[in-house]
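worker-3 :: picked Transporter
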Amino acid sequence: MTQPPPPPGAGVLPKDAYTPWIKRVGAYIIDVIPIVILSGVGQGLMAATGENNCTSSSGDNSYGVYCTSQPSALGLILSFVFGIAALAFWVWNWGYRQGTTGSSIGKSVLKFKVISEKTGQPIGFGLSIVRQIAHFVDAIICYIGFLFPLWDAKRQTLADKIMTTVCVPL
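worker-3 :: tokens ->
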């Protein structure tokens, strides 16, 4: 049985009251699958509709076929549309959904949520977006910030510490 989230203003709970690192990694993988698919489809369509131009040349010192490839206008438009769809999903999943319920799709599947340490409630749309951007701090120092939950008492990343959030089981 899991322990309830910490009450507002609570101190540090036992380490097992917070979500394990491996579950957080799993949730991230689940969350990025739609983004990778949307982006990949857009890039694939851009490549598939591209125009190839090949010329052969011969001269004193060279002989061969030289090819260049350019995306078509349709390919660029499709790539842009799918890129916007991926961004919209990112904002909806990590901004709106996680901000209002505490759980992105991946977090819901793995049964945990992000809450404010101070209130014990989801952090809201704006702060959820800022939290995702704060993960840049985790990445900029050779991704060490993402490993902090392995040894931190509250299993927080640096972004969690900046935003005063914790991940707790549902």
